[in-house]
Amino acid sequence: xxxxxxxDLRGIVDLxxxxxxxxxxxxxxxxxxxxxxAITAVQHDEQATAGHVSxxxxxxxxxxxxxxxxxxxxxxxxxxxxxxxxxxxxxxRDELGFARHEFLGQFGIGLLSCFLVADEIxxxxxxAGSPAVLWTGYADGRYDVKPGPExxxxxSVTLVPRRGAEMFLVGATVNQLATLYGSLLPVEVTVDGxxxxxxxxxxxxxxxxxxxxxxxxxxxxxxxxxxxxxxxAGLTGAAYVLxxxxxxxTRGGHRVYLKRMLLAxxxxxxxxxxxxxxxxxxxxxxxxxxxxxxxxxxxxxxEATRExxxxxxxxxxxxxxxxxxxxxxxxxxxxxxxxKALALHDDEMLRLVxxxxxxxxxxxxxxxAEFRARHGLLRYxxxxxxxxxxxxxxxxxDIGLINGGYxxxxxxxxxxxxxxxxxKVERLEPTxxxxxxxxxxxxxxxxxxxxxxAAQRRLDRLGCEVVVRTFEPANLSALYLVSRAAxxxxxxxxxxxxxxxxxxxxxxxxxxxxxxxxxxxxLNHRNPLVxxxxxxxxxxxxxxxxxxxxxxxxxxxxxxxxxADAALLNTSFLGLLGRAVPGEDR
Length: 586
Ligand SMILES: Nc1ncnc2c1ncn2[C@@H]1O[C@H](COP(=O)(O)OP(=O)(O)OP(=O)(O)O)[C@@H](O)[C@H]1O
What we know:
alpha+beta, Four Helix Bundle (Hemerythrin (Met), subunit A), 19 helices, binds adenosine-5'-triphosphate
């Protein structure tokens, strides 16, 4: 024996309201959609008069109910039984069950959303050539059908509000919702007699109208407007470039219309992540909604559309670079983070950054292209700290240096040879500069030996090696240089000290057997103060001065100050102050 499933309507309505639809407000959208589809259907059938949808809110009906009337195709009694009373049945699918292209609806559940705000739905309908029918559906799952009063072909749906949902049916709310969802519909819609449809899509009405639309609906005056056109998705629209920076991690949503009915105001997935600098408003005839009609169905067409829009945005940037570089520079000032993120995997964007984005160098702000033209290669410091340490010394020795420490910059520089094998890139490390330091002559070296060993004794416990060299600029007294290996070793030792026995054992097994070079304090013998310090006769004062130079070099290079360093800075400062202030202790 075969039986038929029973459906508990209350359960279904509960499911829809809590899990499918974001808010009961969507009932206006579903009703509008049915009315527009009915008009579309009649326009396909015969030579029809202009379609019209009129909504009367509870302000006009006066009895708390809402009525929406269309002059669409209407239903016969047989269709009423089949379509209105069967959940999931829709006239908008073809024999194979695919959504028919010309309609907005497809799932056969839209009318149910009215039960989110109504206890009772009355549908008064007539198909041309058939008698009028009155169908009444109740929230508890019952419905009845009887002959209705005479009327023109078409349908009117009346909602009797549920207790507590009356506010969804009042004029102001209904007007706001009909405008939100339906203002671009190709069929005229009125609410309590006032027209809410605009006719033309705003991005087709010229640049000025398009900008005014962005100001009104998106709340900003765009930096620029890019026209969008993706024929395979039947998509037209505009991408509005944001006039202020946004966090690349926050995903911007886009305003999407499907067949001129608003899908949602913050749809994700329409643009690739890198294009966070644009907000789009688009209308598509081919993209599909999810059943909630609040998001786009993620299929291969959406993917192809995303790529096509990405191409159009990329094309805009490239065009700007050739036709209006100053405007491009302005754009980059606002959105450089996004463009740089994109440059990490997109050659065109990489070229754009190389040509147009000014980076910090030790000879001022210049683009990578200019830098390369001047210095022959791209020499960079990988962190801002390293750059600060090296910039002045490198400049004094006529070595150009780029600060690769800002977000993405080092990766961008490293990726450039992939674009053009002619481009040479070199990472400069603090210790690389040591080779440019000149050794002292033998006599001076000999003379400084006692000073050096005293200084070394003083700094041994801090794990630092003291050397004296001559280098430019002369006004720089001392540099603290840490190689990458030494830097790693410092971190490693700190971890080993904190680790428990088991983990410590593992770390020991990993440790390099050879001790790495120690950090160096390089004193500059070209600096007059350093010369005087090396010539001091007083051992206590020498020690204080060496410690002060060490501390100053740490600070200059933005090195981390360990507790031992802080203690040393403190004693040397107070010691020197003690020496400098005249008078006897009392
Ligand atoms: N105003 C109307 N005029 C004519 N037929 C209508 C009207 N409203 C509903 N119908 C009929 O009732 C059927 C069911 O409507 P319902 O809104 O539940 O689903 P749908 O519009 O087919 O799909 P979706 O769930 O995607 O909205 C429709 O397919 C349509 O045939």
